[in-house]
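User: Can you write out an input/output pair for a complex, sequences first and structure second?

Assistant: Here is one pair. Inputs:
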Amino acid sequence: MSGEPQQTADHGHALGLHYEMQDLYSPPKGRFGRFAATNHTVVGIRFMLTAIAFFLVGGVLAMLIRAQLAGPSTQFLDAADYAQVFTMHGTVMMFLFAIPLIEGFALYMLPKLLGARDLAFPRLSAFGYWCYLLGGLTLLGALLAGVAPDSGWFMYTPLSSKPYSPGINADIWLVGITVVEISAVCAAVEIMVTVLKVRSPGMSLMRMPLLAWYLWVTAAMMLAGFPPLILGSILLELERAFGLPFFDPTRGGDPLLWQHLFWLFGHPEVYIIFLPAAGVVSTILPVFCGRPMVGYSWIVGALIAQAFLSFGLWAHHMFTTGIPHLSLAIFSAASLLVVIPTAVQIFAWLATLLKGRPRLSLPMLWIFGFFFIFVSGGLTGVMVAVVPFDWQVHDTHFVVAHLHYVLVGGFVFPVIAGLYYWTPQFTGRKSDRGLGKFAFWTVFTGFNLTFFIMHLTGLLGMPRRVYTYAAGLGWEVPNLVSSIGGFILAVGFALVLLDMLVQWRFAPHVTTNPWKAASLEWAMPSPATAYNFASLPEVTGRDPLWKDPELPVCIAGGAGFLAGPTVPGQRETLAVDALDGRPDYVLILPGPTFLPLLAALALFGAAGCFLFGFYAGSAVLAAVLVGVCLRWLWQSGLREDPQPVDIGKGHRLLPHPARDQSPGWWGMVFTLVFDATLLVSLLFGYVFLLSRVSDWPPVAMIAPDWLVAALILAGLGAAALGSQGAVGANRQGKGRARGWWLAIASAGGATSAIGFGLIPSLLTAPATSHAYAACVVALSLYGALHAGLTAIGSGFVAARCRAGLVSRVRAGDLLILRLFSQFSAGAGLIVLVAVYLAAWLA
Amino acid sequence: MFWSATAIVTGVMATAIYAMATRDRERAFSTRRVLVGWGLIFPALTLSALMAFAFLRGEQLLAREDGAEVIRVHAERWEWRFAYPGGQQSDGVLHVPAGREFTVAITSGDVIHSFWVPRLGGKMDAVPGRLNRLRLQADRPGIYYGQCSEYCGQGHAHMQFEVHAHPPADYAAALAAADNVEAAPLPVLDQRSAPAGDIIERWTDRVFEALGIS
């Protein structure tokens, strides 16, 4: 990183500021320093580069598939290898390429777009990255060892259950992907809080760049969309490892429960992938049209509508599973309805093109490719939303073609447009010449050759996931064409990569804001500095750089807010009022630390031990993980009540530990949204199973003990009241009473944890005998885990109180604890009612 | 559907390219009208029409209780077995009367499979623990090719079957000739989903009972 601010009025001052800040925000020097990096620029780039590496892996797998299908009865791969190849192609592209690329892009871009120096929780995104890397490497290692998952990327039960997949293959998918999902959830919480709070002064919600809206809505969808999959994976792993029969129809389970949970995640996932890419289009298009995007508020509305609708579509992946006719009609209608917000966006883009003066530079070329492919894919999507048509083409190559039109057209094309557009951010160079256009046309031709013809292959009756086919069915020619197209496509992507490398080394250097864009990520030198902004800009409109082209120079000279650290060696940025963008408080950012890496290693180790059935090791490492997390949380906070600091322009603000609704508090709110969705998914599964058959469970399997219920209730009540009392006592400055209340909360948590732990012992039949008993165990585990965390959390906060990290002013810890304990108490109550009510009525 | 889809793609691309080609022209039009007209009203109208068509067409594929012949289809890795109302059984070949509607009742003995005869249209999964129905008809006598279309393990690609549609007059004889008398009877489905109404009734009864009102 060597970008230097250009031609400022006060050149010397700007340069001094640059060196000071660059030093402060860069990863520590030394051999291991890079493992401690938390800066969002570094973490974001790591995410994106890793995702691109996985894209190449997925691409190689795709080539293996096309080589195998090029002709009838090919002997290249056998059925077993082919199963691993297609399963891993889907898994890698979805979970290890698309989603992490989005996360990395959001983590890299958001602070720069929003005018901040870093994300709300820099350590959390570093942790997320390590989880992603370790989980991804597990899957990759399995592939190399020949034990990769082989039941298809949506892992339908019972094919993925123990009797039909006895090997470790399926376990690797369930455990590895869950570790990767944890990183997605971390990123989602990070994005939610960052967009809401960590912006430049003056940037109200309706002044945010559209891309920030897109990423925010995406993150919200991730928070609500990932829990069903995480839950499904946990339940299936419990079934595989311990025989709890959630999905086994011979023991009261139902294989369709997996499909519901999977597609409850899987359909929103399509929009989670598409929306950020659409955001890239809405960012680049106006720049090359030289005018703002048409219909800003329409697009925001469309996004929110799309997010809600996408959760009502999941069953359209299940039209052929025999779900009732009424559900078919409802889900079919909802699938068509979701077209409307998409149409609003497409016509807003067209209207912007018509109103502006579009220039056809390289990024725009890719966006035109996106229009063609994505609109075609959307229209075949409308076709498969029509039930009779879907009954014909479901699970054929028609659907394969459709999903590649949507995902490659709707995601990869905009991503490459974005790659070209933002290259100067990373390299400080750009070029329109060279291979770029040729690479585009190669990809475009190869793509359409491969997948257009594949619609026909499907209509001719070729099902997906067959490793070979007989000659004489009319499938030879279209398959050969698809394979030739596939290799042209691969060459095209290789050319794009080569073009990138050439540009990185040889393209001419650019000055600040090379595309004459309007958004703040171009208000810094290219390549981007580690600290983003020497001083934070004041935003007065939606297009700050069009309004004031001199802004980069002013903020590099220190004319904005927070020029330089207020305390030497302290990373900090501003948090604003979520709605109107008034400055709210100074956010003190943590510096580099090894804790995220240690936490990820502990988690990975626990997961690895579990995978090999070494449960004791798993438990020990889980305890280590809790310890590392506590150490991590201990790092933040102040030991004395702070004074307001001068942030420039006559404003004085308090640092965040002195404010009640700190980022940590918001982070807990969104974590609980995730947690609540997890509980709802679990209850959904419970009710789904119990409503499936007329005698559920066939005999009374639990002897509900009122003593245990009383124990749990007392514990939950004590935890909820104790955390409330501690907040009250703290407000009145009564340190001793605060300690007692926290002790009550902690004891309450421990009591109810013991109570929940006793519930499985009330079962009169083994948990492996029926899905009902298995559900009771899963529900009690959920209750016990939350109660246990309440106990640990209360003890931890009590220790922080003793250490002087909490005061009347610095009450954040207690407020966060109260949120968690009261949520856990409520959730525990629901679990208790769910178990006891059903037992009592049965 | 194909032609309207082509028209929409062409329209979108033509507009985009037109905008690029005539970039120097000033255009005065109401963006709000574009968004309302094309973004909301146009898809709403076309999709409602499509929806109505789909719903009516879908009705025809549903299994109805009207006395049509019900043939049991049982999938088990990696073969298809068929049982007919008269007690006959066959493996790998499904014998049906041509020109007459029939219902297949589909079950699975292990993992999820999917019953599909491309030229007869329609497809239905064989889900363990469930019984799914599909209404089909072969218009003309002949041999139709069928196969599993849900990935079910390594034999999936070869899990195929044939449908032989016989003229109605020859059907009984063909069936008798094809009957595999030595085949073991197909397993009886011991668990099937109860209608939603029953379940609500059962749980309300339980609540009333528990409260002592009954």
